[in-house]
Amino acid sequence: MDGLMMHSATNRSIILNRLKRFAVRPDAPIESKIAKNRVHDLDALYSSFSQALTANGGTVIQVNKKDGALESLENIMKELDADTAVISEDSVLKTLGLKEHLNTRGINVLKGEKNPTAHKGTCFSADVGITGADYALADTGTIVIFHGKNNARLLSLAPPAHIAIVEKGKLLPDIDTLVAEIGPSRRDLPSAMTLITGPSLTADIALQAIYGVHGPKKLYVIFIE
Amino acid sequence: MVVIEPETNNFRELVRENLANEQQRKLLGDFSLILKALRDFSFGEMADGHAALQGGQKIREYAVNSLPYLLETFEENATKAGAKVIWARDAREANAFIISLAKEKGADLCVKGKSMVSEEIGLREELIKNGIDTYETDLGEFIVQLAGKRPFHIVGPAINMSVDEVSCLFNQVLGFDKTQNPVDLTMAARIFLRDKFEGAQIGITGANMAVAETGSIILVENEGNIRFSTSAPETHIAVVGIEKVVPTLSDATHMLKLLTRSCTGQRISEYVSVITGPRKAGEVDGPEELYIVILDNGRSRIYADEAMKSALQCIKCGLCAAVCPVYTHVGGYAYGWVYSGPIGAVLNPLLLGLGKAKHLYQATTLCGACKDYCPGGVDIPNILLSLRERAMAGDRSLAADRPPVRQKIFYCLWTWVLMDRLRYKIVSKLFRMVLRIAGVGKLPILPAGLSGWTQCRNMPQPAKKSFHDLYAETSKWMAL
Predict the structure, then answer these.
(1) How is residue A168 annotated by DSSP?
(2) Which residues in B lie closer than 8 A to residue A198 (C-beta atoms)?
(3) Chain B contact for A36, CB < 8 A?
(4) How much is the ipTM here?
(5) Domain range summary for chain A, segments of one domain joined by +
(6) CB pair distance less than 8 Å for B253 and A33
(7) Which of A53, A113, A202, A219 to mutate to test the interface with B (most CBs of B within 10 A)?
(8) Does B145 share its domain with B278?
(9) Residues A24, B193: C-beta atoms closer than 8 Å
(10) Is residue B474 part of a domain?
């Protein structure tokens, strides 16, 4: 191993030196172009988001406040015939008192595990994964999750259904505004920032579009006003 | 499972074989029409699709021009984020590193995301040979692995296979019941691969982009198999060609818009992962270690050649194949190696050596459709012309074969004839005479040695008078 690492350092200088003989030094600082902040109308963004994600096989719901969110969540769980759920540590979910509420409705909310292997087992066995989201992009119908402490990666991936509960204020027009929003902190991106635009999809057999190939078959996004 | 050797010099046989496959030809026609329509629609939706395309080409040109400097910045930022960056000069080194790492971790199960570069270095086969159970997890690539074939298309590796063929394959290899329903087949693959995702110690992917500014790698997919491969195992290894780097996050998002639109006509793919380092303290999932293997494997040689350099601007969207009149007839297998379509006609000879892929750059129409559609700005038609020129000259730096002596003599003579007006006049007159006498009014084919030119078309009978003769006569008449 160590031998290979040393090899890597030699390779590095060989490759870079070879390339530099034919390269041009960048003439501008390596910094993102930041789009101008635009004034956006949340309702227009919502309708664009809803249209785009629905066309991509997701379901978008808008609710008034806490009670509405819990009610529509319950309906979804019934529709999915789900018994077990895993819930992320997202602050929005905590404010909703989601865990307690689901427990009273007979849904088994699996214990959040700190051990990676146990956590994996939980996520692979749950019927539904419920998370928050950091941003929502209107023009593509995309939710953006900074996977990290508050929203573990497998919660939105391993269970057959994913429900994201998002404050409407998280809506942005598009991916360019996302880069602007991340701003100068982009050098400290989370270990995984995931853009999700629909359920897991394949068209690899005879070009036929099929949902739920590896990840969730269903994706719901609930916006809270 | 064996490494499939390149068959790039069997082009003629492969073409004949593939052209005879009626079902495949129909599929290719449909595929091309559908993809072009989806692509055009998705670009049409943009505020200015044409400007966006040109912007993307500029970004890739700039990135390739400043490549080593961007790689340095990328390495610095990726390392800061906790990733371990490894440099490999060729396939052998990259494979050796990954296998020794896997062995050190005591890994016996590995899940892979679809990656052309890993296909290029034969990584899966090497891992399996070394006793590490390795599964392709992209559905199309999984099918390709089970069938022991090569990818038929850069983006849709198994699009040529019928439901029936996939069903028979799953039945034979995995023991699933036969079915005519693609949904059942997809679910069969889901069930089979789910345990692998949960149990694998190592996840291997490529990268669609590496962002210098942030040290991130970006992975674009629809299935979620890459997200599993980068989230569930304790070790994630990303194999990245040196050309994949872009300067900034905003450049990356611009390229992303072009990539998904060109690949599948989507505004954005179902999943895009921006991965910056391994999992951080307090996080419960994601890999404990992230290794980024930066691979040269012949790319710096392409880089050193001004005429070939723009080949490295390719973002592997596969669109050039769908718009190519050659690919849409012969299909992906005819290209005989990892890359197919126009970019395959460029990359296969450049990476394997011109002598090992003699026909690919000849079998093109030079219509330029690939260049018109290319989001990376690769000047494919001009590279193809340069490849022909280098092959003719026997360029050793691109590992071209020495041209045959007969051909050399012929071109020397030809040049000698064309260099002098009188010589040209005499020879062309002689040639026309011979053709007229030999043809006796009709000339369907040329004799052996030259018959290649008339295999599919008749040799036209020469005109009674040459252009020069007519011109001289007309001038005389005009002067009267």
Answers:
(1) G
(2) 270
(3) no
(4) 0.96
(5) 37-224
(6) no
(7) A202
(8) yes
(9) no
(10) yes
At residue B1 the predicted structure's pLDDT band, cuts being 50, 70 and 90, is very low
Task: Say yes or no: B292 and B424 in one domain.
Answer: no
Within-domain flag for B193: yes
Interface of B with A in 137-176 (CB under 8 A): 137-140, 143, 156-159, 161-163, 166
B282, B297, B312 - which closes a domain: B297
- Looking at CA atoms only, how far is residue A201 from chain B in angstroms? 5
- The more confidently predicted of residues B462 and B331 is B331
What CATH code is carried by the domain that includes residue B233?
3.40.50.10420
B293 in the same domain as B424: no
How many domains are there within chain B? Answer: 2
Give the whole-number percent of chain A exceeding pLDDT 70. Answer: 98
A192/B269 CB distance under 8 A: no
Correct CATH for A37-224 of 3.40.50.960, 3.40.47.10, 2.60.40.420, 3.40.50.10420: 3.40.50.10420
pLDDT at B422: 93
Residue B144's closest chain A neighbor by CA? A204
Q: Is residue B142 part of a domain?
A: yes
Q: Which of B158, B214, B268 sits opposite A187 (nearest CB)?
A: B214
CB contacts of A149 in chain B (<8 Å) are 282-283
User: A81-95, B370-384, B466-480: which has the highest mean pLDDT?
Assistant: B370-384
Beta bridge partners of B236: B203, B290
Could you give the CA distance from residue B276 to residue B12 in angstroms, rounded to a whole number?
Answer: 46
**Would residue B265 be called left, alpha or beta, if left means φ above 0 and alpha means ψ between -120 and 50 degrees?**
left
- Which sign does the torsion angle of CA B362, B366, B371, B374 carry? negative
Measured distance between the N- and C-terminal CA atoms of chain B, rounded to whole angstroms: 81
pLDDT tens per residue across span B11-23: 999 999 999 999 9
Per-residue pLDDT in tens (0 to 9) along chain A, 225 residues: 566 677 899 999 999 999 999 999 998 889 998 877 677 899 999 999 999 999 999 999 999 888 899 999 999 999 999 999 999 999 999 999 998 899 998 899 988 888 889 999 999 999 999 999 999 999 999 999 999 888 999 999 999 999 999 999 999 999 999 999 998 777 779 999 999 999 999 999 988 999 999 999 999 999 998
Nearest by CB to residue A8, choosing from B31, B86, B137, is B86
Confidence of residue B75 (pLDDT cuts 50, 70, 90): very high
- Same domain? For B287 and B424 the reply is no
Q: Nearest CB to A192: which of B73, B161, B275?
A: B275
What helix, strand, coil percent values describe chain A, rounded to 5?
Answer: 40, 20, 40
Query: B270, B297, B324 — which closes off a domain?
Result: B297
Q: Taking the model in full, what pTM does it have?
A: 0.93
Contact B163, B182 (CB under 8 A): yes
Task: For B158-216, write each residue's pLDDT tens digit.
Answer: 999 999 999 999 999 999 999 999 999 999 999 999 999 999 999 999 999 999 999 99
Residue pairs spanning A and B at CB distance below 8 A: 264
| pLDDT exceeds 70 at position B66 | yes
- Domain range for B277: 46-297
Q: Give the residue among B284, B290, B229 at the shortest CA–CA distance from B101.
A: B290
Within a domain: B369: no
